[in-house]
Amino acid sequence: MLPFPFETIPPQNIRSFSCKKGGYVFRQGEPCRGLFYLERGRVQMSRVTQDGAVVTVHSVKAGTYFAEASLFSDSYHCDALARSECRVLDVNKKAILAAFRTDDTFALNVLAGFARQVQGYRQKMEVLAINSAKDRVLAGMVLGWMTTDIGAFASELGLSYAATHRALRALCDAGKLMKTGRGVYRVIERA
Predict the structure, then answer these.
(1) What are 130-174's pLDDT values in tens digits?
(2) Who contacts 124 (Cβ-Cβ below 8 Å, separation ≥6)?
(3) 29: left (phi over 0), alpha (psi -120 to 50) or beta
(4) Are residues 68 and 44 part of one domain?
(5) pTM check: above 0.85
(6) CATH number, domain containing residue 28
(7) What is the C-alpha to C-alpha distance for residues 25 and 126, in angstroms, rounded to an integer?
(8) Phi, psi (5° rounding) for residue 96?
(9) Domain of 105, in residue numbers
């Protein structure tokens, strides 16, 4: 039911549920039940800043786990909002922690997966540190971050829709990107 390395978790510790677009998988402050696996759909994990701005902390893609930090927390530190109709698996926290204690191979494989995620987050931090909107958009395009629409891509980059759209247009004009359809772009490979 679950992909590696969580496939060894007994099925009675996995709850499958659907979430409609605009619904919440979990809310900030709710008690942690476990971590989640997104079978299909898109989920945006976000926090609201003190001035009321919504900051995306992670965009979850189908086929990936999320809320891993919840294994070591009493409550969720952000909201997980369904950006489309979703199918989610909730993997029981106690069952995972028990597997850590009894199965060294499982624990090492989970740790390796978490380490790869940390590397991805560090890469994202590097991209977000790029001051030029045009250069940040190009870096995001090269890394394959534009998977749905310009608005979601802008949120990933920490830019406004307008700034992202202007940068995409400028990159096309500079011959670095090609527009292949409405809101669809690809990087032009240089030999």
Answers:
(1) 999 999 999 999 999 998 889 889 988 989 999 999 999 999 999
(2) none
(3) left
(4) yes
(5) no
(6) 2.60.120.10
(7) 29
(8) -65, -45
(9) 6-127
